[in-house]
Fold this protein.
Amino acid sequence: MSHCGLPEFKLTCRENYAVIEIMKENFTILEIKWDEQIVTVVRMDMLGDGCPDYEFINIKVHNKNFECAPSNEKLTYSYGCSSSNISSRKVPQEKGFTCTPNETVPGLYTMETPHQTNKISCNNTTDIPVLPKYYRYLQSNKMAAKDVVKEGFDLRYKFDTKEACSECLRSGGQCGCNQVSKEFVCFYEENIAGDGGSRKWKLGLGIGVGFLGLFLIAIFIICCYKKRRASSNIFSRSTTDPYLNTDVEGGSCYFGVPVFPFNDLAKATNNFASEKELGDGGFGSVYHGKLKDGREVAVKRLYEHNYKRVEQFMNEIEILTRLRHRNLVSLYGCTSRHSRELLLVYEYIPNGTVADHLHGEQAKPGLLPWSIRMSIAIETATALAYLHASEIVHRDVKTNNILLDNNFTVKVADFGLSRLFPNDVTHVSTAPQGTPGYVDPEYHQCYQLTSKSDVYSFGVVLIELISSLPAVDITRHRHEINLANLATSKIQKCEFHELIDPSIGFETDSEVRRMTIAVAELAFQCLQQNKEMRPSMEEVLETLKSIESREDSPDENQEKEFDDIRMIKSEQPPPPSPECDEVGLLKNMRPPASPISVTHKWPSTRSITPNVSG
């Protein structure tokens, strides 16, 4: 068989797989991280079900071109073990597995603490490198050992001609390759003798063709990899693992949630018919469907062109399996991450989103009274405070991601961008994401994420609830395109009558007037540009409850609060961001006293998650 590229790499393409031969073993390429010089590979015969076709061997890759990345974890497999020893619990049952086509050769695996293998009889023991992420999943019983193995491991490749070639060109040489050693060589004029210009021209042509070949090889690897990802459907459904149990749709449990066959979900949504579409956005579309058992569901279908779809798919599953709260949308299940398409299945929330009712298709004056709006604010704050207490930051809080059932009960959705946020760290650095009009201005400046980023976004939601205005409206004055800019300006000037929606009773009901002004002032605190000046979500929740129960004592404090705001009124606020998203809010200015607390593709107005996260 002939190979592409340098002979040492022995790269081939077999049945839509990019395959590389290393130390006489064939490995399938799963992912290439060019900036880190990392290639994720798996032994080709272990890709289907995590079991080898012939035998387990120690996977130790170390030669002049490749070496195992130090980030890999080690998983020790012992196989051909005595089934009587395993069944008698000389080793824990959950550590057992079976391999070979007829599933008759029992085995076990070990991680940090080796089992007492001298007490059992096994034919062989071998070490297999695995990715640290899936190693942790195995530790927490979220994945089976065989599934972890087929996710592969990382190799670091040692060849990097880009830097060497750049240095060669800077020194006046020409980049080339030694046809005998196949190693990079820098050619200079004195190295070229004989035929003069003709020979130089031929050498230059040869060098150019050589580097064009290397470039085409790189494209070849990427194409094979993408084709393999799009066509693979190789999720193991073995019931020998104790946490894989059949569900009502005939699938398995994956990360603790049922796995639905793709064909069942396609049938439930009438093959994702356009009339079933509930919403669309930058990451995927959401469809209404009905399962075989009669349950109505919302199915999120991640776009194939979204290169982060697998990460978002796994992230949303991992987070939602950790959470149970009446104000969070429930995840019913998913397809396998190796399915032909990545689908997430949620409970169907029939009454649309808060955005729909405030300024969308379902918005009508008087149909969303203040009592319901206040309830929405409190329930949303309750859900976000629960997330923060669970060490999770939502990162995309907006009225399009707040769903409403028929009783107007809140269901917060869309955890595709959410992140775990351990207690022992102060922030998480990440590339800016989110929705224009809701993004924390500090997030743009330093790319650091904290729970106060959610607080800022929730401040925008509060302003939407009292004003019925969208977070971004390009038909408004340029200084007021962002609702946050508009609101802080009106609140500074105490022009509440120009901000608060008159249809909710601001002018006619003194109690509504008291509460909406108090909520506006709370939102004012949430929208501070400096995150340290914002309250925590728990403090926001307590303040909202106090406002609802009249514990804020407005008669005694109202005038003082107005004075505090008027004191800031004369200060010059910062100009709006040219990006119309980094909202400047009272930078280097003293915050007002709290009335309660201590002193993309978005052409459609429909939500990506009108009935589910999106």
In short: The chain is about 30% helix and 20% strand. The two ends are 47 Å apart (CA to CA). The domain at 253-347 is CATH 3.30.200.20 (Phosphorylase Kinase; domain 1).
